[in-house]
Amino acid sequence: MSDVQRTDRRPGPRFSRAGRLVLVAVLAVLVVLAVVLVPRLLRGPGPGEKLTVPEGQRAGQIYAAADKALHVPSGSTAKAAKSARLPLPAEAKGNPEGYLFPATYPLDSDTTPASLVSYMVKTANQRLADDHITSYRTVVIASIVQAEADRPADMGKVARVITNRLARHMPLQMDSTINYALGRSTLHTSHADTRTKSPYNTYRYAGLPPTPIDNPGADALKAAGAPPAGDWLYFVTVKPGDTRFTADYQEHLRNVREFNDLQQSGGGA
After folding, report:
1. Which of 78, 96, 104, 111 could covalently link to 52 via disulfide, CB atoms 3.0 to 4.6 Å apart?
2. How far is 18 from 64, CA to CA, in rounded Å?
3. Cα–Cα distance for residue pair 210/199, rounded to 1 Å
């Protein structure tokens, strides 16, 4: 018997020739993906790429679209907007909602989330200056107009309704502000919704919401800055292209009933 102690040695995994070929193919694909995708992620958007911001989008929607366009991790643009020193009114308290101007923005390899958000805010400030709009209040009104008006032709009247109700210390009772509080978009507001404890609930609280509820375009801003004369206090879009404005509450109730009837019958789409 030998004095040398024997040690068990278990054989490692053995691959067939076919298995080795599959493994080599998989590794080759991974290498190609690393060569193609990683540099793209690192360098950001290429020449000619752009980001289009539609009128009425909320900041969160714009941040998500910017993350994709810039090929950065989700949440990067929101984080950059929160920490950046943006040229905003004091009333905004650093929140750029309402100042991410709807437009098409060119992107290149040097575009960062912070630089893109800054560009949007500077564009908004320039457009506001061009239209002689200096009030944060006007931007808040414009954001509601953008959300509530069925078409640009109605924006001036919607702005006048808001202005008239504020002047009379009437609650605005705008469904769009509740939608913003609840993070949704819908035509249907329940009684429970109107009891939501949020400063954006303009059924429960008088006055304007604390911030804009979206990012309004040029038409909404102009309407809010200079609404037409009128005594309207109520409006409802009965069906697309048919928004009815009135100062008579009973007439408004009849219009609302017609809207509800059309919704129930499926004829309001």
Report:
1. 104
2. 44
3. 7
Q: pLDDT by residue (tens digit) across 150-206?
A: 999 999 999 999 999 999 999 999 999 999 999 999 878 899 999 999 999 999 999
Which pTM was predicted?
0.82
Distance CA 154, CA 243 (A): 8
77 φ, ψ to 5°? -70, -40
Q: Report the candidate in 134, 128, 155, 150 with the shortest Cα–Cα distance to residue 224.
A: 155
Q: Which of 217, 145, 139, 220 is nearest to 176 (CA)?
A: 145
| Displacement of CA 118 from its chain's centroid (Å) | 16
Helix residue spans in the chain (DSSP H): 17-43, 59-70, 76-83, 113-130, 136-148, 155-167, 175-182, 218-225, 249-265
Helix (H) or strand (E) holding 236: strand 234-239
